Amino acid sequence: MPPERRSRARPDRSAGARLDRKSRKKPDRRAAAGPGGPPRKAAPSSQRKPPARPSAAAAAIAVAAEEERRLRQRNRLALEEDKPAVERCLEELVFGDVEDDEDALLRRLQGSRVQAQEDSDDSEAEKEPKDNFLFQKKPVWVDEEDEDDEMVDMMNNRFRKDMMKNTGESQLSKDKLQKRLKEEFQHAMGGVPAWAETNKQKTSLDDESEEDEDDLLQRTGNFISTSTSLPKGILKIKNCQHANAERPTTARISSVQFHPRAQVVMVAALDNAVSLFQVDGRTNPKIQSIYLEKFPIYKACFSANGEEVLATSIHSKVLYVYDMLAGKLIPVHQVRGLKEKLVRSFEVSPDGSFLLINGVAGYLHLLSMKTKELIGSMKINGRVAASTFSSDSKKVYASSGDGEVYVWDVNSRKCLNRFVDEGSLYGLSIATSRNGQYVACGSNCGVVNIYNQDSCLQETNPKPVKAIMNLVTGVTSLTFNPTTEILAIASEEMKEAVRLVHLPSCTVFSNFPVIKKKTISLVHTMDFSPRSGYFALGNEKGKALLYRWVLFICFKRQKYL
Fold first, then answer.
1. Which residues pair with 368 in a beta bridge?
2. DSSP state of 471
């Protein structure tokens, strides 16, 4: 075969391989069929025509595009040389490395636009896999410590140990611990606080308050005014978590008292236990519980220095003394010189020197606080209803069942004065203020008479400064706060029968208690914290209710005592 025909019969396969398969022409079957006859067979491969080569115009267009791309690349490199290194690094972080191909940047931008469009489609588009996105951004920097699921030890921390639900939670991850803390906070607050609600809509009142605050920040001056006394009328008070929430009980709370030097509250009940709690207003974690077998507690009290706890029972003549520093429980079975068969009600002097026991048949027994030995006795007519020390521990005030009040001198144990409580048939309670100004006497008819201490010492028939008549049943509890600005009165014979009296105006705060809620029930004991920041109540349901005062200083900015 001649060389010309041989080259024509065998086309250049390398050239055909460079062309796309789609550009190859398929045989025309219709043309292969003869007129009215069956289709003809395809010609052998040796007789087929070679594919057409690309035209000169297409080659020229490709060369021009390549030349244009090179020109753009040269211009961009020239501009890059003039830019500082910081700007080039910033562009690489934002747009990526596009030195080799600028079309990659266009594809990435198109991909992000397609992704944003697909996010706004219907639910059908949301079901599509995320792999359909042309581009997904990657984080610039990743911290390896964030990826490690670090475990937190729950056993070696007493606050975290109380949050364990079972023994298997000795270790928790940070996410689970954060969730547990959130649950504890919401439980302590009674739900999600208003300031933490993200979907809360602003009202017109909130807008006005914000405008007032903006106006406040635009001016200078002394906006905070000092006050020498607590304002009367409405008392801003906040309901906190129960003081004994970590040790609940159904027995009646017989005593609740704050520690004189620490942020601790003591709760004693008829279930034979005295418990100490740390006061924080949120969880009030339990510190310790002392159990006294067959000893339903009638009254428990701290010593003046806070190092001891004294407790008496309903049907036992033993006086228990718990040494908090040594952790020892010391029973006092019998007081030398004291013939009383039953010791129940007692008082501790403010200076910590004396212990006063209310006996039977009108006797008052004065004991040494250090040795628990009898110093002397004082007698009044009738039975002893209640007694208390003066603020300087030099005098004793005693209320009798005949409605009379006796004033005794501690050192000489002589009666200094005796007067009839105005309008009282028989007394139930008595209290003195810390500043030595007032004496409050509660009677069976629900009347609380507030006297001046000087008049009680000098006059035989003193007139009360004010008679509080907001209770209709016998007043069984009276307590002044340490600053002598509030007098708490309560009756254990009627539910919600507790009032807070403002001093020196002697008017009752109108917003306490909230009668509609009815959460207080029957009050058996109450006390103020040493700085008057907290107020505690003990009821018959075994709950030690805890409240906290709130003062409004400027506009709506709050500060706790």
1. 354
2. -
The percentage of residues in the chain with a pLDDT greater than 70, rounded to a whole number, is 69
Q: Report how far residue 267's alpha carbon sits from residue 541's, in angstroms, rounded to the nearest whole number.
A: 13
**CB-CB neighbours of 52 under 10 Å:** 10
Q: In Å, how far from its chain's centre is CA 510?
A: 27
pLDDT for 6 equals 44
Express each pLDDT in 67-88 by its tens digit: 888 888 777 777 766 667 767 6
pLDDT exceeds 90 at position 186: no
Contacts of 485 (CB under 8 A, 6+ apart): 229, 230, 502, 503, 532
CA distances for 167 relative to 170, 180, 209, angstroms: 6, 15, 49
End-to-end CA separation in angstroms for the chain: 116
pLDDT-wise least confident of 33-47, 390-404, 505-519: 33-47
Give the bridge partners for 91, in sequence order. Answer: none
pLDDT at residue 119 in the model: 52
Which regions of 131-285 does DSSP assign to beta strands (E)? Answer: 151-153, 171-173, 237-239, 253-258, 264-269, 273-278
Rounded CA-CA distance 85/352 in Å is: 78
Q: Counting every residue, how long is the chain? A: 561
Kindly report each contact of residues 257-261 with a partner whose C-beta sits within 8 Å and lies 24 or more positions away, as own/partner: 257/300, 257/301, 257/302, 257/527, 258/527, 258/528, 258/529, 258/530, 258/534, 258/536, 259/302, 259/306, 259/530, 260/302, 260/304, 260/305, 260/306, 260/530, 261/305, 261/306, 261/530
| pTM greater than 0.85 | no
At residue 543, does pLDDT exceed 60? yes
3 state DSSP class of 210 = helix
Place of tokens 């001056």: 221
**What does the pLDDT average to over 203-216?**
51
104-107 long-range contacts (CB < 8 A, ≥24 apart) are 107/134, 107/135
Render 356-373 in DSSP notation, one character per residue.
EEE-STTEEEEEETTT--
Tokens of 487: 């007098």
Cβ partners under 8 Å of residue 125, min gap 6: 118
